[in-house]
């Protein structure tokens, strides 16, 4: 009865009879025979569309989009991804590198599934702490620490301070503001490696995280902040 109702509705919509019903069964009318090839093409096209939609939806789920600082992308993610692919070889990991604002924005706008960044005030996304990454004072090789093993943040006052451009300026400003320190800040648009080279050549001082300096052998002093 459901099929009969559906066919009656279809015939009413197209304006002519599609099926002849009799004691011997049901067969297409002449009009029905004429439109049958077009109906089959439509159904095949619809099936192809469903298949393409399924492929696109499936391929989206096979990509994990990760955003991170350059230092994390260099020192953490290769091993993380290597171990992850052993468990899920069918998945692809897409990495985007950016500043702390970009990492958070990409996750918030669903352009990334997960982000690696430092915790910021007012951050409303789910947060899982993974490690402590201390900030270090980056000083020229000839800087006299007077035998101290830690660098007092207040000693940045009056120094030309090279502010990194990617990722750490929010953390650095929080540390400086907490101590009421006002160095002569020179905002840069260069990489961490260039910042280190500039400090090495006596062009200023800076602050970077311990992870950034991992494995480096530059002629600078990297001292824990006090």
Question: What key attributes describe this structure?
Answer:
alpha/beta, 3-stranded antiparallel β-sheet, rod-shaped, 7 helices, 226 residues, 3-stranded parallel β-sheet, 19% strand
Textual characterization of the structure:
- This protein is of the alpha/beta class.
- The chain has helices at 2-14, 30-61, 70-75, 77-87, 100-108, 169-178, 192-200, and strands at residues 19-22, 25-28, 63-68, 92-97, 114-116, 135-139, 160-163, 184-187, 206-209, 221-224.
- It has a 3-stranded parallel beta sheet with strand order 4-3-5.
- α6 (169-178) links the parallel β7 (160-163) and β8 (184-187).
- The N and C termini lie far apart (83 Å).
- The model has no long low-confidence stretch (mean pLDDT 88).
Secondary structure elements and pairings:
Layout: H1 2-14, E1 19-22, E2 25-28, H2 30-61, E3 63-68, H3 70-75, H4 77-87, E4 92-97, H5 100-108, E5 114-116, E6 135-139, E7 160-163, H6 169-178, E8 184-187, H7 192-200, E9 206-209, E10 221-224
Parallel strand pairs: 3-4, 3-5, 7-8
Antiparallel strand pairs: 1-2, 6-9, 6-10
Biggest beta sheet summary: 3 strands, parallel
**Structure summary, number of beta strands:** 10
Determine the number of helices (DSSP H or I, runs of at least 4 residues).
7
* Chain oligomer state: single chain
Q: In what order do the strands lie side by side in the largest sheet?
A: 4-3-5
SS class: alpha/beta
DSSP strand (E) fraction? 15-25%
Summarize the model shown:
This protein is an alpha/beta fold and 226 residues long. The protein has helices spanning 2-14, 30-61, 70-75, 77-87, 100-108, 169-178, 192-200, and strands at 19-22, 25-28, 63-68, 92-97, 114-116, 135-139, 160-163, 184-187, 206-209, 221-224. A three-stranded parallel β-sheet has the order 4-3-5.
